[in-house]
Design goal:
single chain; five-stranded mixed sheet; elongated; two-stranded antiparallel sheet
Length: about 180
């Protein structure tokens, strides 16, 4: 994650790794107005009215397992009516993260095998800090409808213009038929 943090809510890897599944480290995240504006701008939303998340972290090999749930109220512009409308989104995610150099990290030059049923490989952390806000924003972005439509909005196609044949245009230049004047 080289990009600047949009909503930096961090925890140290060592602190999270000390916890177990039975007694995970719990964090409740609530985005304030400034964070919501920044997230809305980054995700190209009209507004983000609310965003909360509940995160649980526990040790996983030499890294951490992160389980999260979030709820948000987003305001988007309808692609049909061009009016803003609000919708509620919710989601859950499960991520594994390991420190750089971990034997559990996928080697950067390893062959990528796509298995839709397999779990994602663990994220490799760049430092000993885990940005929980970044994970929430990333998974929120996956829930946003890229083609938003306000409930009840329907597209009505415009009436097609009649085809004008080139001969009809020439006939109009000729004038009215003889004897009809």
């Amino acid at each position: 994650m080289n990009a600047p943090a949009i909503w930096p809510v961090t925890v140290r890897l060592a602190e999270a790794a000390r916890h177990s599944r039975r007694e995970p480290l719990r964090r409740r995240l609530v985005a304030d107005a400034a964070a919501r504006r920044a997230i809305a701008t980054a995700l190209d939303l009209e507004a983000l009215e609310s965003l909360t998340a509940d995160i649980e972290l526990c040790g996983w090999f030499d890294g951490v397992a992160i389980e999260g749930r979030f709820a948000a109220r987003v305001v988007q512009i309808c692609g049909v009516s061009l009016e803003p409308f609000a919708s509620d989104l919710a989601g859950a995610f499960s991520v594994r993260a390991v420190p750089a150099g971990s034997p559990h990290a996928q080697a950067p030059d390893a062959e990528v095998v796509v298995d839709l049923e397999a779990e994602d490989p663990p994220d490799v952390l760049e430092s000993d800090v885990i940005d929980l806000g970044a994970y929430v924003v990333e998974h929120l972005s996956l829930e946003i409808d890229p083609f938003p439509r306000k409930p009840g909005a329907a597209f009505t196609a415009p009436e097609p213009e009649p085809d004008v044949s080139p001969f009809a245009v020439l006939k109009g230049l000729k004038g009215p038929p003889k004897g009809t004047e």
